[in-house]
Fold these 2 entries.
Entry 1:
Amino acid sequence: MKTLIKNGTILTTTGEIKADILVDGEQIAAIGKDLQGPFDKEIDAAGKYVFPGGVDNHAHFEALNTDGKTTNAGYETTWCTLLGGTTTIVDFCTNEPGMSLCESIDYRINTRAKGRVSPDFALHACCVDYRGEESLAEVEKLVEMGVPTMKLFLAYKGTALYMDDTKLLAFMKEARKHGMTMMVHAENPDVLDDARDSAAAEGHYEPKYHYMTRPQWGEAESVSKAVRFATATGCPLCVVHVSCEEAGEVIKEARAKGAPVMGETCPHYLVLDPHLMDNPDWKQAVHWICSPPLREEPDREYLWKALNNDTLSILGSDNSSIPQYQKEWGFDEELGCVDFRKVPNGCPGAPDRLNVCWSYGVAKGKMTKEKFVEINMEYPAKVNGLYPRKGTIQVGSDADIVIFDPEYRGTWSLESNPNGLTYQPYEGCEQIGRAETVLLRGKVVVDDAKYVGQPGDGQFIPGKPYGMAYDLLEK
Ligand code: DUC
Ligand code: ZN
Ligand code: ZN
C-alpha cells in the first residue's frame, strides 16, 4: 500500500519544510517534491502541519496504583491517545503479584496487552517487589527484552512502591553496567508525611490539603539525592514529573556541571491551577489529586521556561486513568468525609498532552514548533531507545504521522476530548488546533478527527539500551 501525503508543511526540530511524504507499507519511503506514483491513496495536507506521531514517555494504563492495589482504566481506552496525536506510549510495568520484573514484562506484552492496545507501546520496568540479588540480576535481562528504562519511587514510604537508598544505589550501579536509564519519582516521603499527618491531626482532610502538604522543598530535596546518586554511580537519570522551580533548578545546576541527568514535566503542571482542588464538591476536587501536586502560577511559568532553555527535556503525560469510583475511595466512613491521604494519585492526560502543549505553548507564542517536536516526539524516542524508528519523519522511520489542523478552535470536553473516563481535568479549557488525520505505521487510525482504528493495532516496540541520557556521560 502506497500513500502520498501531499502539500503539507512538515515540522522538525530544526525548522519546517514544504514537502510531500511517500508512505510504503509501514515505513516512510521518500520525502520530497514530485514523488512518482502510482499511489493507492493520496491525502491532501494543504494548510496543515505534518509532524511525527507523539511519543509519550510516561503513561499508566492498567497500572497498580500508589496504594498498591488500584487498577487504572485499561488498554481498551488507549485509542484516545491516537485522537490526540500520540502514536507511541511508554507504559509503566510494575510487578504483577508474585511475579518477577521480567515475568511481569512478559505477562504484560503477551497477555495483558495482547490485541488490546491501539497505539504502539514500549515499557518501563517499575520495581515494587524488591528481591535483592534476584531483582538486580534482572536488569540485564530486561535490557535484552527491549526494556532499557526503569522507574523507582523514592516516595510512598510504608508501601511496596517505596525504594530506599540501598535499593536505589544497587539498581543504579547495575543499570549503568547494562545501558539502562533510571527514572525516579522524587519526593521526600518523610517531609510529606510530616506535613500530611500534621494537617490531619488538626482535622484537615479536604482535597486541597493534598497540594498544601507536598512542599516544593520536599521534591527538590529528593531530586538532589537522585542527582548525586546519578553523578556518583555514572548511571544516567531522568527525573520524571518535575513540578516546580526549586526542583528544576537542581537539575539545571547538575546539567551545567555535566551530570548525566535529564528532566520531564507534564502538561498539567504547565496549565492547571491547584485551586481547582478547593472545590467544595469533593467528588470533583479529587480529580486533580496527583503527585507531585499542581503548583501556583510562578512554578507553572518556570516550567515553560525550563522546557525552552533545555533544563527540562521531555513533556510526558503521566497519564493515570483512575476511574471516578476509585477516586472516591478517598472517602473515609469513620471520619464521615473524604481523607485526601486516601485518594489514589494521578490525572489522565495522554490524549491531551499535545493539544495542551500546542494550545497553551505554540499557539500563544510561548514555545516554538521546533521545541514542540523535540520535547514531545524526538527526545522521548531517544531517551527510550526508540529513535529513529519513532519520533521523527525520516526515510526508513515508521510512518507514524500526524496531520494537524492549526485552525481548529474548540473547548475541552469529554465529548471532544475523550479519555476513557467519566471526567476530564481540562474541561472548559480553550483548545487551538487538533490532529485531523493520524497514521500508525502507515495505517490511517484517525480520519477527520475520528478514531477509525482497531484495538490491537498497537505493537510492542523494543527499546535499545544506552538511550539519550548516556550521551551526557563524559566519554
Ligand atoms: N507517580 C506517577 O508517576 N504517576 C502516578 C502517581 C505517582 O505518584
Ligand atoms: Zn511518580
Ligand atoms: Zn507516573
Entry 2:
Amino acid sequence: MVTIDEERFRESFESYSRIGATENGGLHRLTLTEADKRVRDAFVEDLAELGLEVRVDRIGNIFGRREGTDLDADPVLIGSHLDSQPYGGRFDGQLGVLAALETLRALEDEGVEPNRPIEIVNWTNEEGSRFPNALLGSSVFSGGTELETALSLTDGEGTTVRDALSAIGYDGDHPVEPFDIHAHLELHIEQGPYLEEHGNSLGIVEGVYGMSWLRATITGESDHAGPTPMHTRSDAMAAAADAVSEINRLPNRLSADAVSTVGEFSIAPGSINVVPDTAEFTVDVRSYDDAVVAEAVERVHEEIEHACSRHATSAEVEALWNIESTAFDPEIRDVLEGVADDRGIAYERMPSGAAHDATRINEIAPTAMLFAPSVDGRTHNEDEFTEWEDCVVTAGCYAEAVHQLASE
Ligand code: GLV
Ligand code: MN
Ligand code: MN
C-alpha cells in the first residue's frame, strides 16, 4: 500500500495556489499567460527534483517519466491541468496534477518500484476559456485535433496559440503523438453537488457528457433610441435576449440531464441611446446522451431563427467545438472500487457534466477518473472549495490505484 504525505501534499497545494492567486482566494491563471509560465516552471522544477526525465511537446504538454523495473512495459499515465478559468478556483485541474505529483513522491519515499513506468502530465489549455477549444493539449495528443489547427487558434486579442507558447518558452520540440499507454487515471473535483448531498467522499466516474459549443452573431440595424418607433426597429439585442431565454428553457424540454449555457455575450455599437445592430453570444449544450446534444444544437438554431424573425434581424451560427460523450474503462473502475472498499470509503458511481482531458485519452487508452466532493457544488469561480480531508482521502485512493495499475 502507498501512503501519501498529507503535509507535503498540502504545502504543494498552497504554494502552487499562490501562483496567479486572486484577492478572493481563487486563481486567475489562464493558459499560456505569464502566470501559467510560472506554475509550469514550478512543476518542471518539481519533476526534475524527483529525477524524472521531462519532455515538453509542441503544444506545450509537459510530461515527466519515472521508469519501472520492466523497461518494455507500457506506462501508466497520470495528471491533469494547471490552467484555470478567469477568476476561477484553486482545485479544478490543479488538485489532479498535485495528487499525481504526490503519488510519485510517495512511491519514491517508500522505495516502491512497480514494473511499469509512470508518466505524469500537465495538459495545455484544458479550460478553453482563452482559446476556444477546450482539452486542447490532450486533443492534439490523442489525434482528435490537428497540431496546425491548434497552433493557429486565436484568443480574443488575436494572439495565436503558437505565439503564446513561444512567448512563455513552452513551445517544446517533442512531437505531439500518442504512445502506448497501459492505463490513464485522472483525479478531479466533482464540480457538482451530488457527492456532498449523498454524504460520499469519493466519486468513481463512469463517463463524461457530450457537449457542443456554438457562437451566434445576430445582425440588425442601429438607430436612434428616441425617434425610432418600436415596430420599425431591427434590434439585435432584443433578438438575442429573446433567443437566450429560449435557449435557457430548452434543457427542460429535452432530458433530465441536459444543460445549456450562454457564457459570453457582447453587443455593438454599445451606446445608451443607440439601438444595437450586432449581438454576439456563445452557447454550451451538454448531456450524457449524444442524441440529446444533437437535438439541443438543432433547437438552438431554430430558436435563434425564430427570435430573429420576431425582431426583423438575421443570424449566423457557427459550430465552435464538439465532443462526444465517453464511457470509462470498467476494469480501471473496478480497481478504484476495490481500493475504496479496502479503505472503507463511501463512494458513488457517477457521470461527469464537466469536460476532462481524460475523455480524449479514453479514445486511445483505457482510462478512468475519480472525484473529490465540491462544497455546495460550486466551481469555475473563486468560491470553489473542497474540504482538505476529502482531498487527502481521494488522493490516497488515487495513489494506491496508480500503484496497483503500475504493478499489473
Ligand atoms: C471545462 O472545465 C468544461 O467542462 O468546460
Ligand atoms: Mn478541470
Ligand atoms: Mn474547468
